Q: What sequence folds into this?
């Protein structure tokens, strides 16, 4: 948010982890991040890394340690739920841990995201179904099974 004109991360810079994320997916992601080819320009982010299975987490740490021999410049952010700080990945990378609280108020964050997700020239696209020509939206319900 310090550089509002900079684009948001691309699909290859973010790994959204779930309990079903495979070791191969994590391995490909870590190789993109740690093997020198982008000269440290991209910021790679693993979201919800605490949800990885134990086996995948172990293999991810092993691969991370193995790829350290490249001594490349990389930028890797691993975001975890603070309530699961004792799961494998947060424990394995605890020496790098930084507790973070959002520094910007929610309305400012929302404006920033609206700037990046608004369709500039509305057409007959799917973006017309979301408020203010946004190309993303969140549909939720307090009740389960209502088809959203």
A:
């Amino acid at each position: 948010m310090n550089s509002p004109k900079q684009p948001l991360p691309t699909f290859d810079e973010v790994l959204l982890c779930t309990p079903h994320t495979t070791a191969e997916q994590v391995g490909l992601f870590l190789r993109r991040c740690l093997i020198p080819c982008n000269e440290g320009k991209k910021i790679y982010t693993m979201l919800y890394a605490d949800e990885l299975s134990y086996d995948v987490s172990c293999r991810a740490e092993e691969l991370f340690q193995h790829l350290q021999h490249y001594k490349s410049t990389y930028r890797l952010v691993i975001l975890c739920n603070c309530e699961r700080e004792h799961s494998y990945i947060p424990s394995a990378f605890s020496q790098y841990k930084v507790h973070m609280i959002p520094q910007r108020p929610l309305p400012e964050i929302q404006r920033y995201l609206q700037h990046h997700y608004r369709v500039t020239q509305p057409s007959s696209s799917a973006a017309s179904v979301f408020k203010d020509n946004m190309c993303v939206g969140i549909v939720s319900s307090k009740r389960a099974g209502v088809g959203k």
In short: DSSP finds four helices and three strands in the chain. The helical segments are 23-34, 54-67, 88-92, 106-117. The longest strand covers residues 44-47. Residues 57 and 96 are 16 Å apart (CA to CA).
